[in-house]
Amino acid sequence: MERTLWVVGLALVCVLAAWGMWVGWRHRGGRQSSLPELPTVPNTLGEVRTPPLTGLYVSTTTAGHWQDRIVARGLGVRADALVRLTDDGILIDRDGADPIFVPVQDLIEVTTAPGIAGKVMAQADGILIIRWRLGSSELDSGLRADDRDSQAEFLVAAKDLLAGNPGKSEEATT
Description:
PH_bac, PH domain-containing protein, transmembrane helix, alpha+beta, membrane, transmembrane, 2 domains, elongated, PH-domain like, 32% strand
């Protein structure tokens, strides 16, 4: 009988913890509800600058604050993703979640970091970070690429785009 009470008590603690996390997630989303809607994906994207990058969309955070996860507007949904870099911007096409389109004029920086909320890597360049503007907020979206060589190629092409260089980067196409 005593053992049964311990099992029931532990199950209740687990349910209470899960409920608390769910409530916290919803409250965080409510606090972030002032974020504007995400830009719509254009019907046609500009010229592709590099082959698509496959990987895991980890999360989006407030720029420079790698633990301050954004959950509003569906940005908290972790998913496999296909990332395209075009002359018009970056499209993060997530499986089972709405795509995230970052128009080139809202793109601030593309770099790497060892981690972002939800994922920390041993390598200093383990996570691809896309810093962008949504309304008056600056955000960092993080992706763990499946192929580090493809990530390096994507990074070079994105920096080329940000520098205003027309056409494809020579380094990105080799």
